[in-house]
Amino acid sequence: MRTIEKTLVGLLGMGVALLCGCERHSIKETYYLVTANASLPYWQTAAQGFNQAAADYKVTAKVVGPDGYDAQDELSELNKAVATKPSGILISVADASVLQPGINAAVAAGIPVITVDSDDAASQRLYFIGTNNLEAGRLGGKRLAEKLPAKARLIVFTLAGQPNTDERLKGVKDALSARPDVTIADVIDIKGDPRAAFDKAQELLALTGPKKIDGFVCLDSASGKMVSDAIARAQDPHRILVAWDVNPDTLNGIKAGTIDATVAQKPYTMGYVGLKALDEVFHYPPKQMGKDYSVDSFSPYPVFIDTGTSLVDKNNVDLYLAAAAAHK
After folding, report:
1. Which residues contact 116 (CB under 8 A, 6 or more apart)?
2. In sequence order, what DSSP letters do the residues of 249-290 get, joined into one string?
3. Which domain holds residue 220?
4. How far out from the chain centre does Cα 157 lie?
5. pLDDT digits (tens, 9 = 90+) for 6-47
6. pTM of the full predicted structure?
7. Do 144 and 29 fall into the same domain?
8. 141: part of which helix (H) or strand (E)?
9. What average pLDDT does range 155-181 have in this prediction?
């Protein structure tokens, strides 16, 4: 009889919870987004998505990260987050060799970790949410292959050693294999400083004759604006520039004609989906947090969630400007 009474009380409690609209979430649940460069508009957009998901779920979101590309500083922010024993961590991997020990330590402590934007597949993170960077590189490379003149010389600006930009560079090279007459004259590591891209672009734009540079591709979010400014100063509209992401300055460069196109990612979606994914893992944790689920055909998790990419040029740039204005 007592067992039946307990069951009835339990069912009654569940019914009251449903009637009052009580949810499983709590502001005591804290989720971290650890960014690679918090000062960039790209990461501010990702933070918007992360914070919106937290508001929807009524949990606490914290966004941390260095104001510049510094993997050691990012590791420090990760370690601080781990020390608070949060409900989950979403992290962009600036340098896998630096951040992997911190990711693995978080997982060993029972904290769900999902990578975003830039992955470290060899770490013990559960899975990756972001861009298919190899295909995104091919998208940008295909545009260059279509636009560059015969026997063109191309300069690539990148962040060497960052997994996502390394994949993008592979994709660009893949696409340009269809244009054997195009030469990548140099791959320049800006080391997280967009001003270095401006200075180098100015120097390269002054070259003439057989050393003339016909095009540029920027594989990071910030340097496109700088190279665009250098092209504007050189007053040479025939140089082809393909940038990355849809920062306002980049979109305005397309409108002005100093940027031919940019590869658009979806950082807001990455942040939004990322927090919800962490929440799901926190409430329904796996039996083994550090297991490699990529080799499990019965895994409850994907290996990768592709948030999508697209090419933005003068034909559709107004749509992206309008979308940005609507989310201010």
Report:
1. 33, 46, 90, 91, 92, 128, 129, 130, 270, 271, 274
2. HHHHHHHHTS--EEEE--HHHHHHHHHHHHHHHHHS--S-TT
3. 133-264
4. 17
5. 433 344 444 444 344 446 778 899 999 999 989 899 999 999
6. 0.88
7. no
8. helix 133-147
9. 96
